[in-house]
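Exercise 7.
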Amino acid sequence: MKVSIIGATGYAGAELLGILVNHPEVEIEHITSESQTGASIADSYPHLSGFYDKRLSSMTDIDQFADSQAVFIALPHGHAMGIGKQLAAQDIKIIDLGADYRFRDEEVYEQWYKVPHTHRQSGAVYGLTELYRQQIKEATIVGSAGCYTTASILALAPLAKAHLIDVKSIVVDAKSGVSGAGRSPSLGVHFAEMFDNLKAYNIGGHRHTPEIEQALTEVSGQESIINFTPHLIPMSRGILSTCYATLAEGVMPEDVDQAFYALYSQEYFIRLLGRGGYPAVKNTRGSNFCDIGWHIDTRTNRVIVVSAIDNLVKGAAGQAVQNFNVMFGFAENTGLTKIALYP
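Solution. The predicted structure, written as tokens, is:
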């Protein structure tokens, strides 16, 4: 299967390239970068030397993608729409790692991302494979789920789907490694600012908030409104999401257990640690797995669900490849069986 990557020099793009190089069903045709056009990808990422040394082209040459059956777009929000619009007439499937095709309602996208949505594509499918697998199979454009959202939605979906929680009582407290902020230098993720530090940001206004609400509303059939607070921690990758919700009247601990096993027991990439389990980011580092454990506080009548993922793999590149595998009929874990790097 011939594929191309637009935006190969960001962290997510480079992670994607590293996965696809070892994908047995893929041949990488083109990789692009507007800042490094003409250079070898190995100049930006020396760890790829000897595995993949191809030179980077510019995405402005849209005709180059005509020989690709799928194009992965690993660019900041606002850029994939223009590319999708130009490729719409060609028989090319698109997997966008950004936010442009994640929302059912483009007005929600415009409200939170502050840019106009220029390619209104009703056929785009939300790319969280475990919940939208059947739609992804038939999709031509997939908007892969965000990193915080993947960890949080997967943690809460079983409870929302089974109507075991009040979906307007949800509080999500999530912590991410600094690679989630991208590769471009900025003061907020400077070593001297982050080392030996922990800080919250974008309280009440993070752009992943409506994405989580959209998915939980769809699985529950009830409007979901959440409090979402993200934090940066001094590590390079990983997300730990701790999610709180009030249990519905009469819900027993066994009902909570059953909801998780009913939805996820057959899912390859979800590892259920059970009631009392404590996921840790190091156990998912470099892998496409999501580890989930849950606890019930009978004193407050709340359930606390903890999930751990690698933000660059299950939260970005690995999930994009998982969606790609579903779209083209490959085994879902093809190219994604890497065991977490430990310690």
